Amino acid sequence: MTKPTVLVLGGLGFIGRNFIPYLVENELASEIRVVDKVLLVTTALNPRQKEAFSKVEVWQRDLVDRRKSCFFRYSLKMLIYSVIKLSIENSFTRTDGGSFDYVFNLAAETKYSQIEKVYEERVYTLSVRNAEEAARRNVKAYVEVSTAEIYQSDKALAEIDLYDKNPSKEDDKAKPWTMLNLVILRPTIVYGPGATMGLTPRIVCGRIYKLLDEEMKVLWSKDLKINTVHVYDVVRALWHVATWYQNNGKAGKGPYIYNLADLGNTDQERINKHLSNIFGIKTGFHGAITSNLAQLNLDSAVEDSNDKHMGPWTTFIRDSKKIKNTPLTPYVDKELLCNNPLSVDGTKITVETGFQYEVPEITDEKLVEMIEDFKVIGWWPKENV
């Protein structure tokens, strides 16, 4: 049986750097092309990832215009659009002139605190243009990685349970795509080797509080949900839903939408316990009164928090004398200090497709594995943890 051909958009990002080794090591595809806005030579990879990427085709292409095109004349805007459209068409065209069987879109913007225009261009427009090309070519499966952080309560803020015990499901409607064989995955907080966001700022803060010899206290209570999923399960789910879609007669019946959340129902208490175990620090919570006061003046609270943490971390990195540059930071965007629970039901994918999570919950070992990987690629000083 001929193995499928695969196109991975945004394949040099965090999830992509773990997805490509999974594809290569398990010999799942006959051809793999990675397209990303960054260069492979400037991407920090561990030895396993370097080996995998040496066996695939990597293109440097920007699939969305990142300039402030609102200031351009209409004629120039159309020229830019034509260039981007051609770049997308070329990316989707195999060397023999054919099309790829499976396309995975991992290219959307994931940073917090961006203006609405940035998200419109780098999430919505990027996804629409690539989806249109995939539909035109009738690819066998187009898998879009979104996020479970899009869910909102229909109730007013004062009426919702901030420590929501009723996890969000996939009931939100998605606009149907004509002739697009679409599966959308909505992962919760993804953690694992190479993650620079998500849980990583908390891990960095844990190391800082060990340096400071102080208790690490976070806003809100221990029950605030911060559901998680390991990146190894995310990459397995990517391939699983693509093959499930093709092999079970799902073409033309989508889109199918699945949350990804492990079975641990992670909350702040669980995360704090792991950081306490790993770094030997005391952890706690500021509670409702202090947290609500911080929320009233969130900009000031964010500034105070980042001022406290950035100095010690910078000193720690500088004193190591071997870390030239690191994307790891304790810096926290203000969205992450709000009382927003992330409580998500990730079981639909197991019931409907047979997928099984291999990392059912966060453990000390999985977080230490992240730190050890940071050391290998030169992002964290080599020390015993």
UniProtKB/TrEMBL annotation:
InterPro entries in the record: Epimerase_deHydtase, Lipid_A_modif_metabolic_enz, NAD(P)-bd_dom_sf
Pfam assignment, any one: Epimerase
Residue ranges constituting the NAD-dependent epimerase/dehydratase domain according to the UniProt record: 6-260
PANTHER family: BIFUNCTIONAL POLYMYXIN RESISTANCE PROTEIN ARNA, LD23561P
The protein's name: 20717_t:CDS:1
Source organism per UniProt: Cetraspora pellucida
High-level lineage: Eukaryota, Fungi, Fungi incertae sedis, Mucoromycota, Glomeromycotina
